[in-house]
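Exercise 7.
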Amino acid sequence: MTKLHFTAVPQAQDSLSELRTRYNDCGPEDAEIIVALGGDGFMLQTLHAFTAKGKPIYGMNRGTVGFLMNEYHQHDLLERLAVAERAVIHPLKMTAHTASKGVEARAFNEVSLLREARQAAKIRILVDGRPRISELICDGVLVSTPVGSTAYNLSAHGPILPIDSDLLALTPISAFRPRRWRGALLPHRAKVRFEILESGKRPVSAVADDFEVRDVTAVDVAEDRSIAMTLLYDAGHNLDERILAEQFSD
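Solution. The predicted structure, written as tokens, is:
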């Protein structure tokens, strides 16, 4: 029998108890698969929590948004896991610089830069050391992975990326100048640097998934291929199909 460990959001504790009664919980150290009960936000938390262990994660939706999750059923979990399809994802590495220090964090969805005050941010963008936009006046800008392209990136009118596309989406948030710039598609190996202009007058924060660094002066973003996490999906309902279907939804 496949060894499982279950974890859940507070509102899914009843479901957690039912699954632990039906299937033995071997604990996080001995488990072969982590089963996460919640929504997309909890899936991100679970990915971060188990990055060091690198164990496959199978999510079941017991939250609000469940794009990254499977449907919740109790009775056939082992059968579903036996034929589950795999999606291997890599996070972004963010190095956020402030006046006093540099802070590293990982993001499986996106790294976003956001203005902190009433005035628009002014940001210079370099890709692989080459200046591409000398001054972006905006509410913010983000770099998204394929798995995160249907999240904040999509809300900011960025492109949806196939999960195996080896691309990153660079997307402005409410850009004022250049007015017609809608973002760019970058190869996954690209190194992006954001330099904050007038940082004292126009403060900017940097957020890697749910980890925030305030008052940054520069932010470096690159994909971290040294980390690979596996998400498991029911046969015929894999992440590729979900991302494709999202492009034809209302």
